Automatic annotation (TrEMBL):
Family statement: Belongs to the bacterial solute-binding protein 5 family.
GO biological process: peptide transport
Cross-referenced PANTHER family: PERIPLASMIC BINDING COMPONENT OF ABC TRANSPORTER (PTHR30290), PERIPLASMIC OLIGOPEPTIDE-BINDING PROTEIN-RELATED (PTHR30290:SF10)
Species in which this protein is naturally found: Hypericibacter terrae
Compartments it resides in: Periplasm
Protein name: ABC transporter substrate-binding protein
Amino acid sequence: MTFRKCLMAAAMAGAGFVMTGGGAWAAAGDECVKVLGYEWSGEKQSMDPADMHSGDDAYHTFAVYNRLVDVDDNFKVLPELATEWSSSADGLTWTFKLREGVKFHSGKDFTSADVVYSFKRLLDPALGSGAQAVLAFLDANGIKAVDKYTVSFTTPKPVAELPVLITNKFTNIVPDGAKHEDLILHEDGTGPFMQEQFTPNAPVRILKKNPNYWQAGLPKADCLRITVAQEPVAAVSAIKAGQVDLVLNVDPSVIPALKDDPSVTLLQTGASNSMTISMWIDTKPFDNVKVREAMKMVVDRQAMIDTVLLGYGEPGADNPVPIPNPASYVKEAPKQDIAGAKKLLAEAGYPDGLSFDLYTAEGVPGMVRMAQVYAEMAKPAGFNINVIVTPAESFWDDVWLKKSIVTSAWSMRPPGEGLAVAYTQTAKWPETHWVRPDYDALLLKANTTVDPAARLKLYQDAGKMLATEGGLILPMFVHQVVALRKGCDGYQPLAQNFNLNFENLSCK
């Protein structure tokens, strides 16, 4: 049986079965709370938080690790391994007081040395973590242990939002001296759950309760069984049959099948994932800014939300900052302009239209439909787009970053991080080949500007530059919907959808 067939069969037959040596299906972790995800990292699955490839890795990473601080949906900073923090008068040094009495799963005491090591490790180019691009404002030499339970970050320039900016998905704390080659397969975190069963590319992973977790009374579940189903019907079938307890992202196309089901509760976030079409701006025909502008003008954003997301979303403006955010450079979504797009396409040298392939997959729910709807919207302007649908389980490895135009999706991030994660020169995932030193300088200036109004203006300028000149089409942000089986409670989805909090989740 191929891996794809094995995975799909697992989802359909209970979303958590593994093949035994004798060839029979055997249940794994039946006593656990059963979580069903939608993204898949395949052979690149890793227990190292510095090495997260997709949302799939977050399913286990955020269950077994903690960050220094957490954030809510409004990016208000909350205590986690740090209990309090403050800035020096000159704004150059942030000091964090750490929680005492915390232990790693290995039994080692958590101290400031672990925080210093974790952040210096992320800044090391040799590690190749995606964190390097979004932590560019940090100076490794400025990260110091003041005492056993105090750590300080001193930066070359003031970073007023440092506590927010260090809450990216890579900054979970690992023990001092932990090596990447060990952490890939064997975690050592301080989080509510501990690794029990994990093999990269396997359809099931099982995490057990940490009996020494620093939050008294948590976690509420004895264990988690995590699986993936990238077929919407499989996810619906599994939760309706009571074979899974929590579906982390319900495809909008199947929400009607669950909406009136008394055995299922649907929970919705605000603006969460962004849905994107990304093109290489150094490759024909996308190297012409008029072509890129025309491609953005063909989108009817509200119609796309209504068609692709069934209304569960809000318009975007071709940059990672949601329009209601004060850091957005516009106050309303761009309007569709077919005539304007046709004119620009002709000026770019394509008076008879332009044809190209657009690669997509159901890497996250709705991506394929977005590509198809976009192709139809672009036709009247002279674009002939051939949508190529590839296998979901291999899209992020074999297609994304390897084809000149693809669909993509990104988790919600604060402006300083969202504008950097894929668009600075040091970005690990440069999906648009946007190499602009002036953009990088603008963003760094924004992240190191103390005055709030001036900082917002700089974020707006960066967002405008990316939206008007870059290779990013961001038509909409998803309002992510999760499904919870009746008898389960204690789970609340967050807009920063990689930030998965399973501590309070329990099922009868």
